[in-house]
Specification:
Number of helices: 4
Oligomer: single chain
Number of domains: 2
Radius of gyration: 27 Å
């Protein structure tokens, strides 16, 4: 009886331990499926008649001085522009400044951005339509993608917020961590861009090929705070006051990818 109870306990323990890993595994698989490029979405980087410039974000590494300052702050400071400003700051209090105290206000800043949701809309914006009328035809015809007009697709923040440029940079960096595709706030599909993919139009049918530009929808929360330099004698520190949080979203286009939707009528 004791042996049987011991075996049951071992089995239950194994199930309990396996459960979190199973859930994590399913969530990871779902996330990969949500961001996987579908078969009807194609890369046109070689065919695009307009050469898009990649929007490589500058990775700002904190200096030793900056690391020392932000390490003692409870709220994470991840804004590249604020880190850059701190890197360029030089504070050297006199070693004999006994009893000296001072507080220097350097502005209200977005301190960090935390992502809550990242999704891809493969049909974010319609950019082109190709058609073939085979209603009176006796044999099948083929329909190909040809871009009629140059189209620029722009991304943007979904609501108003202070320091939008800083926040757009942080959101783009966060989205790039999750989506292994070329992301930028602007992409252009050039006139006469073509792709070899073809669609068969049987006789007595009308074929329509709609083309869309995809984009990432990034949602999360920005933390703001008033940033001060505090000086006490020869000691220096950063102090954050009046912290607030605000939800924000952004659309970030995927460069040099198009999504196709084909219909027979």
């Amino acid at each position: 009886m004791k042996k049987r109870t011991f075996i049951i306990t071992l089995i239950l323990s194994a199930l309990v331990l396996a459960l979190p890993f199973s859930v994590i595994g399913k969530e990871k698989q779902k996330k990969e499926e949500d961001t996987k490029v579908p078969s009807h979405v194609l890369n046109i980087s070689k065919e695009n008649t307009y050469p898009n410039s990649t929007e490589d974000q500058e990775i700002v590494e904190p200096s030793d001085f900056t690391k020392e300052l932000i390490a003692e702050v409870d709220i994470p400071i991840e804004n590249p522009e604020l880190i850059k400003m701190l890197n360029e700051t030089s504070i050297n209090p006199s070693p004999i400044a006994f009893g000296y105290r001072g507080m220097v206000y350097i502005g209200r800043w977005p301190l960090n951005y935390k992502s809550k949701e990242t999704n891809i809309n493969w049909e974010y914006q319609k950019i082109n339509t190709n058609e073939v009328n085979n209603m009176g035809g006796e044999s099948e015809q083929k329909l190909h993608y040809t871009q009629h007009k140059k189209r620029e697709v722009k991304g943007a923040l979904t609501n108003k917020i202070a320091n939008p440029d800083d926040i757009k940079k942080m959101m783009l960096l966060e989205a790039k961590e999750k989506i292994e595709l070329p992301l930028a706030y602007s992409t252009v599909i050039g006139k006469d861009t073509k792709k070899d993919n073809s669609y068969v139009i049987p006789s007595e049918k009308f074929g329509v090929l709609q083309t869309y530009a995809p984009a990432v929808n990034e949602k999360g929360q920005v933390t703001f705070g008033e940033v001060y330099f505090q000086l006490k004698g020869s000691d220096k520190a950063i102090v954050i006051k009046n912290v607030t949080k605000q939800g924000i979203g952004a659309w970030i286009p995927i460069q040099d990818y198009v999504s196709f939707s084909f219909q027979l009528k």
